[in-house]
Automatic annotation (TrEMBL), chains A, B, C, D:
UniProt-annotated binding residues for substrate: 126-128, 163, 170-172, 222, 266, 272-275
Primary subcellular site in the record, as a coarse category: cytoplasm
Residues involved in Mg(2+) binding: 104
Official protein name in the record: ATP-dependent 6-phosphofructokinase
Site (Important for substrate specificity): 105
Catalysed reactions, semicolon-separated: beta-D-fructose 6-phosphate + ATP = beta-D-fructose 1,6-bisphosphate + ADP + H(+)
Role description: Catalyzes the phosphorylation of D-fructose 6-phosphate to fructose 1,6-bisphosphate by ATP, the first committing step of glycolysis.
Domain Phosphofructokinase: start-end pairs: 2-297
Protein species of origin: Zhihengliuella halotolerans
Residues engaged in binding ATP: 10, 72-73, 103-106
InterPro entries named in the record: ATP_PFK (IPR022953), ATP_PFK_prok-type (IPR012003), Phosphofructokinase_CS (IPR015912), Phosphofructokinase_dom (IPR000023), Phosphofructokinase_III (IPR012829), PKF_sf (IPR035966)
Transmembrane segment boundaries: none
Length: 342, 342, 342, 342
């Protein structure tokens, strides 16, 4: 078989380990050939293909990003999009099946294409860990590690200056990165989109930590807003391209805390460093296994399925069982974490 | 309640996070008090106790080792050992229950003591990840991370000198650290106690990697010996204290590979650096949760049970269901990994 | 002798290693006693003093921040400020001499106080490395390391998405951190306050890198503005406290690059993570030596002098020879670096 | 011009940054061409050459090892060795000049070849920092960082088990790595080849630290032996190839300390991990500058000179002024460090 691989959506540490795992297992176990579609679905609809012989995946599992590029192209748009055109492209290039590595959007597109008869299996990718039907997604552990290490650094500055430090981490819709990095770093409050919290409560946690002689450390996911506030709360307006500016909530929160508590407060927006660079060992092992298992799924013609971590086992899940709803931080996990607040 | 905590056996990154999680949850959720037994069961049988108010656990979750010390003392030995003496010591110090953090030996002792009527719950601790009834134990992820990072370093030296690099990692009886770090680092062979492999096979993997222009990287768990060899294979004799010298297998293996293949080979024994220092974010979060849940188990009088990670959930398991047999690397996990060898 | 130590101004990795080096050398070589003034000059003018016996400096050289706190208090202000009041406070507390660890402002104050007859020696502290008469200041190497590691991460994201990544680092007045981290990370342009560069030139470097298939990486010190622009260029206005908002130049630059070149661009503001956490080995060794030598300077009654690194040697420099002008990146260092741009 | 580059002797983090700095500066400033000799002098005497266009040095400054390989071949040996043969090889391949990156042996060979009329400039490389006429050599800072981080890890294990931890670091003839990493890690004794110390003194330092409740941390350079001992002291005999086994002194020392003091002691031999992997930012910047300046030296026909760091400046030094004697740790540096022992 000749198998095409694509990586789509935001980049994520571990993508290259998936590619390497797939290519090595495919070549060594089954004698398959591999190609990469450049920049996700863009390479599919445009037939922009690069050969992936064994030598191209040499040593890449510890490399961040994706060697085949990524984009947010929608495979149903444009004159070459849609299942018929894509099947033609596959036929023209001798591609028998596709391994699509991506998040909710990518996998939903993959589902529509498999429903239309295409040979596609999926590998879930979301740095936010918000996909259902999988315990963890690769990249999440790396993001949590980077955020935790950054907070360890912020803490010593906070203690020296008797400041409240606010760390804004990724998470527009779910708070997994905030929850895990906040627990690991010993934060005095963790604020996530799933949980409505008043500013009064936030300030109380800040004051409690301060009264015990600590420099309060507050972790906030980018999608959180205080109870009662509307989205304008963290709005920093649009940039010159009409895109919403990033980094609103952290800075706004630091200002509000300082005004309410009188404790000097500073915000840090971790931003893109959370998603780049060398993946953790955890993510490299997980991603390698997912890539290997994706090839086995192709071999078994398990179209419309994705590979997924359950406990310590890699299993297969049908797209429809994973898609359509975010995996949010459950109430009991937040309750557990919040015992440590203040 | 007044709860005593002990850490026993080899130290492990995350012990302090367990202690902190337990103390904070106990104080904040239930109003409990805490003491620490110094140096594991030694502190129990000798009544060597230190108070653990909230201030003592401040900021310790990122600190390696254990603030209350550890040892390999057996609580059934000595004139003050055994359940009756220990109960007396508890009564004398007003200790209502014990949280015992330790591995197979510690938990087996805890089981015997609970069978004799003592109030004990357990937290599993094994850097080797060899305890059953739990997906992962804290400390394991840190050990794998350190080993992987070390191998990333060894690799560039190997490539520059066209050498075969042998990395010896922990694992006398099981190969989990070798398996995970070897997969993460892209090793050309992983040798673990569970799997019998001939030197011919090892040399073949080395030569295959070499023929592709790679510097072979071999990971070996300390307890592995080649098929057909006896334990004298890696024997470096006894040191001046009559203890078996460490680091036998790695060096012996490098010599044998060099002799058989003609490829210059070097061994590195990672040793104690695998178990010290700052825990990974994964281990800090896991350990914090285990500590918090151990206190809940005490609150529920769940004597004879330990807390355990299953998927993403912390559950309780009876000691007898976790003890008595090592959690070995299963055949399918080794088969999966070995596809990548050579 | 009884010696008081203070740390003043922005915190900096290595402050604790200076304190430890001073205390240990003072106790072991000369039998001195030590106290710390809490929060810099505030502790001096308010007589807020903490004893610093040997046990308080145990293990602190790897700890970021400062165990005695810091602030920006001016010792000449307030009713208890000025040399006479400070001498009274010293007499009242039996303090014979002061070791002042701080930057330009702190050392200038120390100079005025020594001119008035007080017993003070200095240790230069500036994370920006902008003090004259010393090759490097501690903390700078740590800041450069953190910034470099962050850029290594940004780079893989940039390559995967074919974006231009802009990293904003510290440096309001000088570009040392940008220069060193930019060279270490292989940046395609380094923009520093000392050097006037047009946006046309910046865009040309971006396009050159892009044409070679690279994701352009641009490092900008927070104090840079393009040639011809005024300070309003990077102005994001004031926050609710009337303080200028941080992070202006990076975001503005990314927007301008994207508009001019058509290459998608993203900014990351590294912010406070550059100055916290575990110091590098270089900074720990340097800071320890400076602390030890500061005590020797006290012993020699070298009032009005500071300790300083020259090559590999710690020397003494009179305050007046170090103060009064910033150590800027010299033209030849920028010319050297700029060969690598584009 | 067409310039050949070689890397010779033990690998060292930063070699690739030197190569990149040379190639980029040569191409961009002067329009030179570059080739690499594979595996040091072996590539020279065998004419084993690889072209080094700009694309080959892309992104390599953060990569450990050397992309052109290294070996310990002596260019004066063999039938193709010696100045005349090498000049012929250079002529045959159109190579106008050589940049030789290596240590004492490499530079001594380069000196003999330049004395015979060949066009060679040098870049000093020694991870041990033992070359004279340069403040620091690249790779040293990385080795010190890795050793320091390892000791931070060993320390928490030592404290938890109340053990004495012995860390053996590189340094057969000089103790720079031990000195710097030991100061950075806060070691209770640093043992280096330059300094004769009795076992009684070592044991006293161990006991002093122990009495203050610390877990003693002892750093020993591999070339140290106790005063009065002969080389057999740390002899672990020869391996199957007749090579002296590594790791003798650390283990022997731990045994002797335990026997004399009764304190349980453990040794860790850091070995090859000290010289591989990602270089520190300090080493990347230094190595890049050295490579750039080496090309300028070629441009100036500065044959027989090497580039060297003095303070913050890169200067040129004649081979004869740098060679012939080791740069040892001076007495005053050891005295300074030893104040902190015990």
């Amino acid at each position: 078989m000749r198998i095409g691989i694509l990586t789509s959506g935001g980049d994520c540490p571990g993508l290259n380990a998936v590619i390497r795992g797939a290519v090595l297992n495919g070549i060594k176990s089954y004698g398959h050939e591999f190609v990469g579609f450049r920049d996700g679905w863009r390479g599919v609809v445009e037939g922009d293909i690069v050969e992936l012989p064994r030598s191209t995946v040499r040593g890449i599992s510890k490399q961040g990003g994706t060697i085949i590029g990524t984009s947010r192209t929608n495979p149903f748009e444009g004159e070459n999009g849609g299942p018929e055109n894509i099947q033609k492209m596959m036929d023209a290039n001798g591609v028998d099946a596709i391994i699509a590595i991506g998040g909710e959007g990518t996998l939903a597109a993959a589902k529509r294409l498999t429903d239309a008869g295409l040979n596609i299996v999926g590998v879930p990718k979301t740095i936010d860990n918000d996909l259902d039907a999988t315990d963890y997604t690769f990249g999440f552990d790396t993001a949590v590690s980077i955020a935790t290490e950054a907070m360890d650094r912020l803490r010593t500055t906070g203690e020296s200056h008797h400041r409240c430090m606010v760390a804004e981490v990724m998470g527009r819709h779910v708070g997994w990165i905030a929850l895990h990095s906040g627990m690991a770093a010993g934060a005095h409050a963790i604020l996530i989109p799933e949980q409505s919290v008043t500013m009064e409560q936030v300030n109380e946690w800040v004051l409690q930590a301060n009264e015990r002689g600590r420099a309060p450390l507050i972790v906030v996911a980018e999608g959180w807003i205080p109870e009662g506030a509307d989205e304008a709360y963290s709005d920093r307006g649009l940039d010159a391209f009409g895109r919403p500016r990033l980094g609103g909530i952290g800075e706004r929160l630091a200002i509000d805390i300082e005004q309410s508590t009188g404790i000097e407060s500073r915000a840090t927006v971790l931003g893109h460093i959370q998603r780049g660079g060398v993946p953790t060992a955890f993510d490299r092992t997980l991603a390698t296994r997912l890539g290997m298992n994706a090839v086995a799924a192709v071999h078994d013609h398990a179209w419309g399925e994705m590979v997924s971590l359950r406990g310590t086992t890699v299993e297969r899940v049908r797209f429809e069982d994973a898609l359509g709803h975010l995996k949010r931080v459950p109430q009991e996990r937040y309750d557990e974490a919040s015992i440590l607040f203040g």
